[in-house]
Amino acid sequence: MPKLLMIIRSIVFSAFFLFWTIVPAFLFVWIVLLPRPMVNAAIRRWQWVATESARVLAGIAYRVEGWENVPEGACIIAAKHQSAWETCLLHVLFFNPAIVLKIELTRIPVWGWFAKASGLIPIDRKGGVKSLAVMRKATADAVADGRKIVIFPQGTRIKPLVRAPYKVGVAAMYQDVDLPVVPMALNSGLFWSKGSFWKKPGTITVRFLPPIPAGLSRSVMMRRLQEELETASDDLARNP
């Protein structure tokens, strides 16, 4: 019976999530014409409903640990990426984040319009010097506005307890701005796993680790980030 209940809850949640993704996006597409704070407020409301529906319909709750490690104002949040779940939480946690995103995702009709209107930081790995200048300008604007910059240093979703290389983007950004890096560990892949339709009930833990201070060399920062973020995420995967 528990397995059957999980199947039913997964189907119900997925149906609602699909509805909640498509219908409001088309009905309220005009929101992208509003000032960015209003766009982000709308996205925050959408994400709040998405995470609450995961809790109510699929039994996936969450808790946040180490919030005292997140400084006021601008900083770099280097987050593990195991699931679509955490992408539905970023505006709930930070309200007005500048999320680093592959530029290809901004070309998705309607969804991409919201992404661009929210003031994201685009990455075009094939764009050369021009795309690098665009990314640096967007980063500088986010820092000037006191926004938190959220980046997934591995660049894609990685399953729990699986090791994958860290990209150079976070190191380049760290070198460009005088900001600390806050590692954000999590274990969302245990409950909403990559490539799986089924959702497993439980409580996801998001854990903010002590900031890595600004001013270190790229190599030292990257070594600390990888060691600390992987160790904490592995711990959450083994001890949910």
Keywords:
240 residues; alpha/beta; Glycerol-3-phosphate (1)-acyltransferase; 7 helices; globular
Summary of the model, kept short:
This protein is 45% helix and 14% strand. The chain is of the alpha/beta class.
Morphology call: globular
Return the average pLDDT rounded to an integer.
91
Report the top-level CATH class: Alpha Beta
> How many helix segments?
7
Q: Structural class given helices, strands, pairing?
A: alpha/beta
Radius of gyration: 18 Å
Q: Detail the poorly predicted runs.
A: none
N-to-C SSE string, H for helix and E for strand: HHEEHEHEHEHEEH
Q: Which percent range fits the helix content?
A: 40-55%
Break the fold down into its secondary structure elements and pairings.
Elements: H1 2-27, H2 36-58, E1 60-65, E2 76-79, H3 90-94, E3 98-102, H4 111-117, E4 121-123, H5 128-144, E5 149-151, H6 169-176, E6 181-186, E7 202-208, H7 218-238
Parallel strand pairs: 1-7, 2-5, 2-6, 3-4, 3-5
Antiparallel strand pairs: 6-7
